[in-house]
Automatic annotation (TrEMBL):
It comes from the Bacteria. One of its GO terms (molecular function) is ligase activity. Keywords: ATP-binding, Ligase, Nucleotide-binding. This is Carboxylate--amine ligase. Residues 127-325 form the ATP-grasp domain. It comes from Planococcus notacanthi. SUPFAM superfamilies: Glutathione synthetase ATP-binding domain-like.
Amino acid sequence: METKHPFLPIIIGTDMNAYNMAISFHEAYGIKPILVGKEPLSFTSLSTITETIELRSGLAEDSQFADILIDIAEKYRAPGKTLLLIGTNDLYVRLIIENARILREHYVFNYITEDLMNQLQVKANFYELCKVHGIETPTTFFYDCKSAEPFEEEMMYPIIIKPSNGIEYSRNKFEGQQKVYKVDSPKEMHNVIQQIKASGYSDELIIQDYIPGDDTFMWDSVIYANSKGKTQLVTFAQVVLQEHTVTAIGNYTALITRFDKEMMVKLQNFLEAVGYTGFANFDLKYDARDKKFKVFEVNIRQGRSSYYVTALGHNMAEYFVDDLIYRADKPVTYLNEDFLFTVVPKAVLRNFVDNKAVLKDIKRLIKKGQYGNPLFYKKDKHLKRKLYLLARQVNYYKKYKNNQW
């Protein structure tokens, strides 16, 4: 076990986001973090960087989460070592926040309060907050699935339907379930609502104006505010491609870093005004109709595509460590460097990006070597993993060829 650093990262999750955080720690400190997950996933199980994975089937259960993490803390506690806790999906971050009081006896971490979490994660509350602070959002209605009345607001079609409570939605699985629905008529809308209600989902649905434009109209921003609420990093990036399968839409597979100081400061000011701490990841879309960026949501953690921050020398692990372990103060950085982040092969970018200006930028950045795929981390030596990733790259090409969202 690595000993020279006064901390040990405990990463909750086994997916791509967990892998990106694990290699961020390995890159910066030569540390192999401990991962805790409910099931093995190939991103992390086939890895020489994440060789210690504690699998606990009840990890996602409210009643078991804190006890499991206390058990992990007992196992890895050592003199002179602080356990640094990091969540990698919405559910795990929510459970850390809800159990913060007891978990702080064993770990250090930087997440928002439960009250602020509910303000930001319940979409009706979030959009109200955005309105108060001058942040543009798409025209949005909320439909309560407990209501016996049909949704009858006048809408221009197509529209978007998605759950306000993603965690509860994912717990009510049903055949044909999609992460986000794009519907073209009132009849189709009513069918989708009935299908979701029948699954047992009883929270609100977001019914929203569809902003026209392909994947390149989507934008991403990563912000880190230290545990005192002081912003230390703000980024802005244009999405090149997102996943096109119905269960994974909204997960970005490639993006290019951009610089828009006005929008970056606007998002920073919003988070500072509400008292935010930790990593935040905004999803936005540019609306060419009124030339404004519209915010869809803020994830209260780093995203799975946020690794571009580390790739550009602003290591995500270092933000946590400098803040929580060394209490170092850092000036705010507005990231302004060119980089293409991708987890798909170059052939997918060349064949499935229609925006000619963006395609030109992709070719320029590849030619300059200013691009990277974190899944092919050079210091990860697991041969079986390399074969798995090559097969995955081929499969990505097939997925984009066969799925147009």
